[in-house]
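Usage

Read records sequentially. Each one opens with the input sequence:
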Amino acid sequence: RHTRCLRVSGLGDVYKRQPKSCGKNVTISQNTTVGMTVHEGIKAFPILGDNIYLAPGSAVIGGVKVGNNVAIGTNAVLTKSAPDNSVIVGIPGKVISYNGAQEYINNPYE
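and closes with the structure output:
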């Protein structure tokens, strides 16, 4: 699926390896990984929703689904699905609030 607005901000590396689906208005900061996992020969890719903010150094790995309006914090590693409007931090990534990504997204897709 084509992304209407994919914003890559800052300097540094962005590692993106074929998310299964990428929503609209996804902001990917520097040194961020969106990658697959392989388990017993089966590849699993992330599914990214709309209005997502991936902070510097964050990682979304494997067959997880990231809901709409989600913010993933600096250096967080998301290995389990994230519900809509969640804010994720830590290793492994955990929900700390349901305030969403609206403060981080410049042009929210509604």
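Summary fields computed downstream for this record:
- DSSP finds no helices and 15 strands in the chain.
- The chain has a mean pLDDT of 83.
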